[in-house]
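INTERNAL AUDIT FORM
Audit reference: QA-55
Scope: verify that the stored structure record matches its stored sequence.
Auditor: D.O.
Record contents follow.
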Amino acid sequence: MKTALILLMGIVVLGACKRGTTGRVCTEEYRFFNVKLRSASGEAIVLDTFYTRIVAGNVTFHANNTVPGGDEGYYTVVSDGQLQLLPEGKNTDLRFIGIKNDQVIVNEPYVFKNNGCHIEKIAGKGEVIVQ
């Protein structure tokens, strides 16, 4: 019985995987990275618009918020939806730009890489206090 249970769990784990761009086995999870914006007093900052810029190529993209929370100050910096924009295996400098009342109020640096399956954060803040 114990052997059958272990075998069944192994099948379930392998079933949750797929082949990545390099032939490696990847999980089918969808990764995204959100930043929380707040004021010095702790209030959520609500932006009019936001985007992320790849510094080297000056390419911009809008990583749509994949989870609710924009009205609570959470914004998506990058997700697996932009994986093809990041060179595989190399660190990529990004800038998260937040705009309110036609002014840039957030210009935050991040470093991510495409690990062949998903985005991977190398550097950057999870919470930013906007002045």
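Auditor finding: record pair retrieved intact. Confidence is low (pLDDT under 50) at residues 2-21.
Action required: none
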